[in-house]
Amino acid sequence: MDTFLSVRHVSRTFPGIKALDKVSFDVTRGTIHALVGANGAGKSTMMKILSGALAPDEGEILLDGKPYRPANPAEAIQASVSTIYQELNLLNLRTITANVNLGREPRRWGFLDEREAERRTTSALERLGAAYLPTKTMVGELKVGEKQIIEIAKALVSECRLLIMDEPTAALNDQETNSLFAIIRELKAGGVTILYVSHRLKEIFMLADQVTILRDGKSVHTAPIAEVTPDSLIGLMLGRKYEGAFPEKNRALGEEILCLEGLSSPPAFDQVNFSLHRGEVLGITGLAGSGKVELGRALIGDWPIANGHILLHGQQYRPDPSRAKAAHIGYMPEDRKKEGVLEELSVRRNIGLPSLAGLSNRFGWIDAKGERCLAQKEVDDLAIRTPSLEQLVRNLSGGNQQKVSLAKWMAIRPELLLLVEPTQGIDVGVKMEIYRLIHEIAASSNAILLVSSEIPELLGLAHRILVLNNGAVQGILDGDQTNEEEILQYTFGQKRGEQL
Amino acid sequence: MLAQSKTARQRIVDLVGENGFILIFIVWIAILILTTRTFLTSQNIFTVLRQSAIITIVGIGEMLIMLLGGMDVSLAAILGFSGIVSVSLMVNYNLPPLAAGVAAVAVGGLIGWINGFLVTKVRINSVIATLGMMNVLNGMALAYTQGKTIVGPQLDGIAFLARGYIGPLPFPVLLMFVLIALFYLVLNKTLYGANVYAIGNNEKASWLAGIKVDRLKMLTFTLAGLLAGFGGLMQASRQGSATSSMGNEFLFPILTAVILGGISLSGGKGKVQNILIAAIFLMTITNGMVLLGISLYVQGIISGLILILALSLDRLRYRRT
Fold first, then answer.
1. CA distance B267 to B271
2. Each residue of A419-454: pLDDT tens digit?
């Protein structure tokens, strides 16, 4: 075997947590090697070390047989290692050419050689089958999938031999994902070694040659992909046997909590009608741009409503976060880092924040002990992994941040929870816990509105699934009767419910 | 799986970084104690503290706004305007000192409320909105006073504010400590303080958590205006007169004290007690140079250098991400 990258006993410690503990694995030259693990398993730390953003505390890394220890990302790129992060690092106000050549602009007599830059860009785009992209376009005008291609072109121009990709399909639709896979296979054929970091097991089985599993900062297993199954992979990530993700649905539905009558906000969504009952999970799905996220946001007041009514317990309701809180409505936004948590504040304060008014006396004096108890209870209930209540949320792993953004609403004892893509970007372990919580909330006769693109999770959790296409309701399907294929037909607008 | 303790070198960097300007402050005091006879007298110390009082009190308001991620450059102008209002009411309209004082503070609060309105409802950036307000107020002050000094025997009625004593302690110094203690509690123990830090940290997430962001901002701008109005009253008492330019000398010290005190320009971070130390430090720089007999022409250079040095040390903590 021709080993290209060899990671040997690499450890890295952060305050309060050992992120990597003697991690070792080998990557064969010219293969696609998947790196998987639950949130907090150490994937991001490993990636940052390989890309030069972090230094390991101990251990060594060999690249093509030579010691590899980049002091910063520039040195890593120099050593032919390129990294594409999930949140793409592109300059939206510069052209494709400027982005592709960024940091290694060709020069002639000290001046920028624009013709050479242009030539390099065109040839890189050709290699990626994206010659149709005009090189003078501002990157900000491109779609996410195209931006992804620009990132890869950037890596090609820097003559990368090891390409590290972090969840590259997170923001892509199926078609874009397929063309990205074609490109990745093309790169592999051209001799580039690829380290593919992802939660999406389906993709790993489609793409990877080898897989390394990290768990709690340790490398637990490396194997050819043919030797593992999805279930055994999940088992290795979790460290226990995996027994199906979804609990039995709650069957005891009660009175109506929420009712939408002709809610419209063109062009995002138009004429949405549904009712939601106690004990029920209502799924809302659709493609990107179908209006499902906007509908979720409108219900908390974060998206304007042009027409229609919302009835809450039969009363007119004008959405607004502080009124919603008073009515025991919780809202978990799609973008947890920007909207769900306050990164520079403690776990305690993040969880306590919506409950503080209830925890303070009439002079506004906060019951500090009450806040601690409340936060501790949620940390225990949701199994949030944190060294202490005072830890800053910034230092938690993504999945635990997601749990914090849910925990603060659990603390107000919600009667209605609005969840927008609650399992986006988190691993299967945390996903299962969030599913369990959704089930528990419904079972204690509260209601859940679940906006999601993950059809399996909708089928597993929702009593009914409302499908949007281009802002229009295509149908409300019975979660027990329908299947993935039928939902897809509705999302693409190829089929509509008769009653509509 | 707890981490290894920090290295000794990192600890020193942390210590200096966390307290950068305090270190320079201590060195500067040491120099003054060694080279002058007069610095360490209670009279001189009280002079420094008294000079710090107005800056600290108005600085608290500035800090609250900066914790929210904004900035108010009109506070010094509010101070001047309120000072003129109070003096004019007493001298020209013979209002009793208490009524004139309440009016001056109320005027400050009203202007602060307008600032808050412009920022939250009209959605103008706070620096721009308050810059406009500053010009309006300075213009009104000039138009009203016609550039003349307002002075009269009626002002004896407010002399206590800046020159009075309670026991051995000058009243303004006592008030300064009381307000710092009060706002320490407000920021660390109350709902208002928790919400201020939350909004400064992430406004959108705080709003989605059900905090009434706009109302809290309006309240904070108003509070800062009230404090600045009170500062104007104190300054009128201190100089025993009012002039159109009486707020000008406070513009930079207020902002410097707050920034030196480590209040993050992007909001969400900072401790109120540091403003007190920073304000005293600022006054000690000026005081020390007078005591050392440094020529007025050179003073600006030296005070600027000391400030830059203190701020540079302060930034050490941001060097490591």
1. 12
2. 999 988 787 788 888 998 999 999 999 999 999 988
Q: Is A425 left (phi over 0), alpha (psi -120 to 50) or beta?
A: left
A279: left (phi over 0), alpha (psi -120 to 50) or beta: left
Is the Cβ pair A341, B208 closer than 8 Å? no
Phi then psi for residue B68, to 5 deg, are -80, 0
Grade residue B315 by pLDDT with cuts at 50, 70 and 90: low
pTM of the model: 0.78
Distance, CA of B229 to CA of B109 (rounded, Å): 7
- How far CA B129 is from CA of B64, B162, B214, in Å, comes to 17, 31, 16
Rounded mean pLDDT of B131-159? 94
Q: Report the SS3 class of residue B166.
A: strand
B177 — contact with chain A (CB < 8 Å)?
no
- The tokens for B218 are 């309006």
**Chain A residues whose beta carbon lies within 8 Å of the beta carbon of residue B207:** 321
When scoring A345, A350, A393 by the number of chain B Cβ atoms within 10 A, the one with the most, hence best to mutate, is A345
Q: For residue A267, is the peptide bond before it cis, meaning its omega torsion is within 30 degrees of 0?
A: yes
CB A353 within 8 A of CB A408: yes
Name which of A17, A340, A342 is nearest B201 (Cβ-Cβ): A342
Whole-angstrom CA distances from A411 to A405, B139, B199, B201 are 11, 52, 20, 21
Partner residue opposite B205 with nearest CB, options A14, A339, A360: A339
Q: Pick the more confident residue, B313 or A120.
A: A120
Does the pLDDT at position B203 exceed 90? Answer: yes
Predicted confidence (pLDDT) per residue in B77-111, tens digit: 999 999 999 999 999 999 999 999 999 999 999 99
Pick B191's closest partner by Cβ from A13, A16, A356: A356
